[in-house]
């Protein structure tokens, strides 16, 4: 089994914006506009009417990072077969256990 450098984790993100028709401006959770670049500020000043306060929340799974026997850091992101390959050709499952690459599997069972 190879060394896990960082366990897999779920990160949570949140983003808030003030949306006018066709324009979206970043703001904080209270609806206070964040500092804008000059162009964005110009666009913002042109807007009329009440913006809509939009909240977006999402989560993302980050796959574990492990150190392969060859020294390379690899992301244990399994393919459709549940296998993770390093550049060196070694093959692991998503827990970092060494697995023989499918091409070497014998079909005698
Ligand atoms: Zn490797």
Core attributes:
8% helix; 8 strands; 109 residues; 3-stranded antiparallel β-sheet; rod-shaped; 1 helix
What does this molecule look like?
With 109 residues, the protein is mainly beta. It has a domain at 9-60. It contains one helix and eight strands, in the order E-E-E-H-E-E-E-E-E. The strands form three sheets. Strands 1-5-6 form a three-stranded antiparallel β-sheet, with no helix packed on it. A three-stranded antiparallel β-sheet has the order 3-2-4. It is rod-shaped. The mean pLDDT is 93. It binds zinc ion (ZN). Zinc ion (ZN) is lined by residues 68-70, 72, 86, 88, 90.
Number of helices: 1
| First-last Cα distance | 25 Å
How many beta-strand segments? 8
What compounds are bound to the protein? Answer: zinc ion
Estimate the mean pLDDT confidence.
Answer: 93
Oligomerization state of this entry? Answer: single chain
User: H/E order of the elements?
Assistant: EEEHEEEEE
Shape: rod-shaped
Q: Trace the largest sheet across and list its strands.
A: 1-5-6
Largest sheet: 3 strands, antiparallel
Helix content: under 10%
Report the radius of gyration as a whole number of Å.
23 Å
What proportion strand?
35-45%
Structural class: mainly beta
Q: Which spans of ≥5 residues are poorly predicted at pLDDT below 50? A: none
